[in-house]
């Protein structure tokens, strides 16, 4: 099993979610996050005083998938979250040791 | 104002052209119901400017941890101004003249003024309350320079001293029969008395208090530009009473002041927006709101003297000067005039006072003839009144703030309170509950 963590532009969330659903992915965790990468922040001007906002709002998706699904999931995220402009985000893949479904106590990929 | 008082000598000339005015003047000792009704409404309009319009205008610009304190400074200013005015402020400003410098104490607690007494064609009580609302807003304007760091106790004491020793005498000089008004200085609704007075005092107080912690290094986001924009629009609403009410009558001069007030405000807003759009590539709502107020400040001394063309010129000048004051001059000089009481009210007040000497059109009001209509001397008289106000307000504020510092053990809140925010640390309240 692998965990896919994707940091994406907030307005791309729906597209990514639909793409993943069509692959048969049945669950994900989404959070609103802030950060910066190469895009850096943006600036706001109040009466001529320019303030740089260092952290930009992004959405973080966390999905745990079976190894067999990994490549397709990553491909769908790359395709649907991309705009070609700076600030599109990142995808990280991490190994997952184990998983349980709390209600039924199923384990491993049955728990996904 | 005032216009009618200055213009007594010119009434003979005016009566040839305006028989109605002549007839009116002959009955000056009589109460006029139209004038009285309008002045009561105008007074209520000006009242609305301080604890609502200015409070929101300023509050929206301060950080969310200080919004309540910022609103509180305006609110308490109105309340204090109201109480002081009926105790001794009115007497010092409009009591019997003592050497052209100040009114006497004879109207302490409005002693000697009764329900049947008249000021011109309106009951004196209406005049007292009308002028009271001016005292309230003027001291509240000062607070814009010092928000987010001044002790509330220091502000309350300073406001009391300032109204007593600065506002009331200056008001007397210009409107109460004192030396500036008799000198021929034109100030229809308060360019010197209100805006220069408040702007310069704010600047001095800001320098004495020092900068806010983190000023110029940390980001200081306004809590809500929506509140600021709404406050600016409410200021415009109230300013109709401020400027058109300063005719002290329901007449053509009031109507003209009403018109040019709105025009200058909107031309100021457009100008500021366009300048900012050109310089920093974005038309900001804060810029529109600031330009609106700048245009209002600029037209204030001129409202009953200039025509529509004058209003356009004053509005454009105010938009440009206000923008330069806050976006160029302030960062260069490095003072923390937090909400730009000096940048907007001080500088645009000076512009308006001088512009009155240039654009005053005798066809609008026989009491004022400016440079463009063949009276260059008026500009010098205006310049003198500006200079005197700057010096008196500046030196006076330094003295009064020094006294306040001694009396209240420092002017500033502690560093810990400043970081936590004045709403919780000073008032024990919150402006917003967002979670």
Keyword list:
heterodimer, A: 112 residues, alpha+beta, Alpha-Beta Plaits, four-stranded antiparallel sheet, 22% helix, B: 435 residues, mainly alpha, Ammonium transporter fold, two-stranded antiparallel sheet, 68% helix, 2% strand
Oligomer kind: heterodimer
Uncertain segments of chain B: 4-27
Rg of chain B, rounded, reads 21 Å
Q: Which percent range fits the helix content of chain A?
A: 10-25%
**Can you tell me the CATH topology of chain B?**
Ammonium transporter fold
Q: SSE order of chain B, as H and E?
A: HHHHHEEEEHHHHHHHHHHHH
Write up what this structure looks like.
The complex is a heterodimer of chains A (112) and B (435). With 112 residues, chain A is of the alpha+beta class. In chain A, 22% of the residues lie in helices and 37% in strands. Chain A has a single domain, classed as 2-Layer Sandwich (Alpha-Beta Plaits), CATH 3.30.70.120. Chain A is built from two helices and six strands, in the order βαββββαβ. Chain A has a four-stranded antiparallel sheet, covered by helices on one side. A two-stranded antiparallel sheet of chain A has the order 3-4. The model of chain A has no long low-confidence stretch (mean pLDDT 93). With 435 residues, chain B is mainly α. Chain B has one domain: Ammonium transporter AmtB like domains (Ammonium transporter fold), CATH 1.10.3430.10. Chain B is 68% helix and 2% strand. Residues 4-27 of chain B have low confidence and may be disordered. At the A-B interface, strand 3 and strand 4 of A face helix 11, helix 12 and helix 13 of B.
Write a short abstract of this structure:
Chain A has 112 residues and is α+β, with helices and mostly antiparallel strands.
Task: Set out the fold topology.
The complex is a heterodimer of chains A (112) and B (435).
Chain A: E1 2-8, H1 13-22, E2 29-35, E3 42-46, E4 49-53, E5 56-65, H2 67-81, E6 89-95
Antiparallel strand pairs in A: 1-5, 1-6, 2-5, 3-4
Chain B: H1 3-6, H2 11-17, H3 19-26, H4 33-61, H5 67-94, E1 97-98, E2 102-103, E3 118-119, E4 122-123, H6 124-142, H7 152-174, H8 179-182, H9 191-209, H10 225-244, H11 252-280, H12 285-299, H13 308-333, H14 341-359, H15 377-408, H16 415-420, H17 422-427
Antiparallel strand pairs in B: 1-2, 3-4
Helix pairs in contact in B: 2-3, 4-5, 4-6, 4-10, 5-6, 5-7, 6-7, 6-9, 7-9, 7-15, 9-14, 9-15, 10-11, 10-12, 11-12, 11-13, 12-13, 12-14, 13-14, 14-15
């Amino acid at each position: 099993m692998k965990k896919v963590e994707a940091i994406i532009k907030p307005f791309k969330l729906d597209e990514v979610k639909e793409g993943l659903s069509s692959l048969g992915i049945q669950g994900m965790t989404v959070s609103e996050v802030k950060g910066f990468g190469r895009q850096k922040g943006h600036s706001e001007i109040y009466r001529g005083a320019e303030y740089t906002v260092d952290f930009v709002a992004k959405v973080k998706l966390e999905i745990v998938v079976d190894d067999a699904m990994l490549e397709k999931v990553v491909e769908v995220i790359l395709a649907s979250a991309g705009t070609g402009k700076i600030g599109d985000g990142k995808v990280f893949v991490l190994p997952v040791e184990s998983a349980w479904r709390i209600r039924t106590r199923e384990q491993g990929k049955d728990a996904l | 104002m005032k216009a009618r008082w200055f213009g007594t000598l010119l009434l003979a000339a005016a009566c040839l052209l305006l028989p109605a005015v002549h007839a009116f003047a002959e009955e000056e000792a009589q109460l006029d119901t139209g004038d009285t009704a309008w002045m009561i409404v105008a007074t209520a309009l000006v009242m609305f400017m301080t604890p609502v319009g200015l409070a929101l205008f300023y509050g929206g610009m301060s950080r969310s941890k200080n919004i309540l304190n910022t609103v509180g400074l305006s609110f308490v200013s109105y309340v204090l101004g109201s109480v002081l005015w009926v105790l001794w402020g009115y007497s010092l400003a409009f009591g019997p003249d003592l050497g052209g410098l100040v009114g006497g104490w004879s109207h302490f607690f409005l002693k000697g003024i009764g329900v049947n007494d008249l000021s011109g064609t309106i009951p004196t009580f209406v005049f007292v309350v009308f002028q009271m609302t001016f005292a309230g807003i003027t001291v509240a304007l000062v607070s814009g320079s010092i928000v987010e760091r001044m002790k509330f106790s220091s502000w309350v004491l300073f406001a009391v001293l300032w109204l007593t020793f600065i506002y009331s005498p200056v008001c007397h000089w210009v409107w109460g029969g004192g030396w500036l008004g008799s000198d021929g200085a034109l100030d229809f609704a308060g360019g010197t008395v209100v805006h220069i007075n408040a702007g310069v005092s704010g600047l001095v107080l800001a320098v004495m208090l020092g900068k806010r912690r983190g000023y110029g290094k940390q980001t200081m986001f306004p809590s809500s530009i929506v509140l600021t924009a709404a406050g600016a629009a409410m200021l415009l609403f109230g300013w109709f009473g401020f400027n058109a009410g300063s005719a002290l009558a329901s007449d053509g001069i009031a109507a003209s002041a009403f018109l040019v007030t709105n025009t200058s405000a909107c031309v100021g807003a457009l100008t500021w927006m366009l300048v900012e759009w050109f310089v920093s590539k974005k038309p900001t709502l804060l810029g529109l709101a600031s330009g609106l107020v700048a245009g209002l400040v600029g037209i204030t001394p001129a409202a009953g003297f200039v025509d529509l063309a004058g209003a356009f010129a004053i509005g454009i000048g105010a938009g440009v000067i206000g923008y330069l004051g806050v976006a160029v001059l302030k960062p260069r000089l490095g003072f923390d005039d937090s909400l730009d009481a000096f940048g907007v009210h001080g500088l645009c007040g000076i512009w308006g006072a001088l512009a009155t000497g240039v654009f005053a059109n005798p066809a609008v009001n026989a009491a004022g003839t400016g440079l463009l209509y063949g009276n260059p001397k008026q500009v010098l008289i205006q310049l003198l009144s500006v200079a005197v106000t700057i010096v008196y307000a500046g030196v006076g504020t330094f003295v009064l703030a020094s006294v306040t510092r001694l009396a209240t053990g420092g002017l500033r809140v502690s560093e810990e309170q400043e970081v936590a925010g004045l709403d919780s640390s000073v008032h024990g309240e919150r402006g917003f509950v967002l979670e």
